[in-house]
Write a structure and sequence with these properties.
heme binding; 4-stranded antiparallel β-sheet; cytochrome-c peroxidase activity; Cyt_c-like_dom_sf; 14 strands; 516 residues; single chain; transmembrane helix; alpha+beta; heme
């Protein structure tokens, strides 16, 4: 007999009492008490330093997108610790800073002098500057038109560089490493010239760094069993909802059905949000509200109901409404493009809209609607990872705030038909990134590459997408990540549209797609 899902009232009760298991938090009351005791010797101003909160503001909206806070810092690491981790763990960073995990830096920034990567916002909380993720972490990538070209950073495209699985795994692994002990960390700060006053030093030794370790150990106990069951995500990918279940809602691994435990998919592009209002959003189309989608993504980045910075999130959302992708650099044969467009309009436009010169047209009878996966036939893992139980938990978020409480999440039976604006920047293709190029996507599934390198940013001028040479799983690579489509959640099957065309027709269709 099938077990029944818990009633809404039980979910609400569980949500109200849930424990926020997070990566290192801001200072606890202990820090304030200790600072207060020590302040007796030096006066009240020092105590004032360990109270209140300050936030950095950026006038330019794109700078705010790249570096501003969305309220996730409660899940983060102290900035001083971000700066010394590469020195404490040289075996992991191998002479680099956070580029070792695919983080990007704004041109001109110097990681060696303490500048933080793109996608990491900061906020001072009780005298300690904390840093953690914002929207740009997953939505700024790089492109090169040739191997010797300088990488071009593009805001709004998927991050094709970031290996979030490796970075999170690193943090969980070092939770009990002796190099994270206060003596070691403080010595590394001294070596870098990060001076601490007498009171600050004691606060860091007895409050900040112990809390960092405690938070990492708690998160490891919660998250590590899930990550151990999943194939490594690889660069440009994330499991959106399963960590959400464990960290946000305090669910246990044994509560997750085997079919829902792998939900890894590609980071999406986030261009042109205004025309997407009312479309089915997320890969599985589980929400048609831009506001809820944005807030849900922020929670996935580490925001809590208590820490959320609605103004910061909404400022980014407003900027994204009309953010356009740069035009395609491809210059295919005009005659081939002219031959390919009618094929696209007949086979693809109803679901995906179409390109008209340099303008993308958001029109199509089924654009932005969910197609059942019985029809699509693509890998079901991402679809199965979102469950009705999770939906009921989500509907308890912000339930006392009529403006922000979630109302629109739903369980679907398929994947949403997405607009294809900026298609040239979105490789690899399908929701799980299992097909490296547009050329391969037009092949029958059995003929698509079984294993290929992802994480590269040089454009493939012939096939559309990034260079993605074949690879052998388990063998070392000089660069990139060997993506194995035989692994759970990585399937290359389905979306067979256009595969029945002749070779010439597929070539013409590809040339038209290269203009997107």
């Amino acid at each position: 007999m099938r077990s029944q899902e818990p009633p809404v009232t039980a979910v609400q009760q569980e949500a109200r009492r849930r424990c926020w298991r997070r990566l290192p938090l801001a200072l606890l009351v202990l820090a304030v008490v200790l600072a207060g005791l020590l302040a007796l010797a030096v006066g009240v101003p020092t105590l004032w330093r360990y109270s209140g909160e300050s936030l950095r503001h950026y006038a330019d909206p794109e700078t705010h997108f790249r570096h501003g806070s969305i309220g996730s810092e409660v899940s983060g690491l102290p900035v001083r610790l971000w700066r010394v981790l590469p020195d404490l763990f040289p075996d992991v960073f191998d002479g680099q800073h956070y580029e070792a995990f695919g983080f990007l830096y704004v041109p001109g920034d110097e990681a060696s002098r303490g500048d933080l990567p793109i996608g990491v916002g900061t906020r001072e909380v009780r005298g300690v500057e904390i840093a953690w993720f914002n929207c740009a972490l997953c939505h700024v990538g790089t492109v090169r038109e040739s191997p010797d070209a300088t990488p071009r950073q593009i805001a709004g495209m998927p991050s094709n560089n970031l290996d979030l699985y490796a970075f999170i795994g690193f943090l969980l692994e070092i939770a009990d490493d002796p190099r994270l002990a206060p003596d070691s960390v403080l010595a590394a700060m001294d070596e870098q010239g990060q001076s601490l006053g007498m009171i600050e030093r004691q606060v860091w030794r007895y409050a900040v760094l112990p809390r960092v370790r405690e938070g990492l150990l708690e998160t490891r106990a919660t998250l590590a069993p899930l990550l151990a069951e999943q194939p490594p995500w690889g660069p440009g990918r994330v499991d959106t909802f399963n960590p959400y279940k464990l960290l946000q809602f305090d669910m246990d691994m044994d509560e997750l059905a085997e079919a829902e435990r792998i939900g890894t998919s590609d980071f999406p592009a986030i261009f042109h949000q205004r025309p997407r209002q009312g479309m089915d959003l997320h890969w599985d189309g589980n929400n048609a509200s831009l506001q809820e989608r944005n807030l849900s993504a922020a929670i996935g980045a580490g925001v809590t109901e208590e820490s959320v910075d609605h103004a910061g999130i909404e400022r980014v959302a407003d900027w994204l409404l009309d953010l356009a992708p740069p035009p395609s650099p491809y210059r295919p044969d005009p005659d081939a493009v002219a031959a390919g467009k009618p094929l696209y309009m007949r086979h693809c436009a109803d679901c995906h809209g179409y390109q008209q010169g340099e303008r993308y047209v958001f029109e199509g009878g089924r654009l932005g609607q969910v197609v059942p996966n019985e029809q699509l036939g693509v890998d079901p893992a991402r679809l199965d990872s979102y469950t009705e139980t999770l939906q009921r938990y989500q509907l308890t978020l912000f339930e006392d705030d009529e403006r922000y409480r979630f109302r629109h999440f739903r369980k679907t039976d398929g994947y949403a038909n997405l607009p294809l604006d900026g298609l040239w920047l979105r490789a690899p293709y399908l929701h799980n990134g299992a097909v490296p190029t547009l050329h391969d996507l037009l092949l029958p599934p059995a003929e698509r590459p079984q294993a290929f390198v992802r994480g590269l940013d040089v454009l493939d001028e012939e096939k559309g997408g990034f260079m993605a040479p074949d690879c052998t799983p388990g063998e070392p690579l000089t660069e990139g990540f060997c993506f194995d489509t035989s692994q759970p959640g990585n399937g290359r099957q389905g979306h067979a549209y256009g595969t029945e065309l002749t070779a010439q027709e597929r070539s013409d269709l590809l040339d038209y797609l290269l203009t997107f």
